Amino acid sequence: MEDGQRFTMAKLPLFQALTEHPLFAKVPQSVLVVLGVITAAFLVIFKFFYILVITGVLYFVAAILSAGDAQFFDCYQKYIKKHDYYST
């Protein structure tokens, strides 16, 4: 090892896989599934092709929000369920 550098477990891929929130295509899997189902429903049922643009924009917004905090959507879901408790 070079002088001044220490070995840390945080750099190992196994440690990162066990401690970091899993993201698929930079968004949580649940958000990606919801966007996919909405897109498929609008395409198949209504033949509304503009939904591809709308869900594309929503995907990029979700990617930006989860880039700052990977657990943003999990925290937001819990906050919505307990909104009355947290509001004053």
Report what the structure shows.
This protein has one domain. The protein has 88 residues and is mostly helical. It has helices at 13-19, 29-46, 51-68, 72-81, 83-86. It is flat and about 65 Å long. The protein is 65% helix and 0% strand. Helix 2 runs antiparallel to helix 3 (51-68). The relative contact order is 0.11. One of its GO terms (cellular component) is membrane. The chain crosses the membrane at residues 31-51, 57-76. InterPro entries: T4SS_VirB3/TrbD/AvhB (IPR007792).
Query: SS-based structural class?
Result: mainly alpha
Largest sheet: none
Instruction: Determine the number of helices (DSSP H or I, runs of at least 4 residues).
Output: 5
Q: Roughly how many Å apart are the termini?
A: 54 Å
Number of domains: 1
Overall pLDDT level: 87
Task: Report strand %.
Answer: under 5%
Radius of gyration: 19 Å
Identify the overall geometry: flat
- Helical residue percent band: 55-70%
Please write the string of helix (H) and strand (E) elements: HHHHH
Tell me the total number of β-strands.
Answer: 0
Low-confidence stretches: none
Pfam families: VirB3
Subcellular location: Membrane
Keywords: Membrane, Transmembrane, Transmembrane helix
Main location: membrane
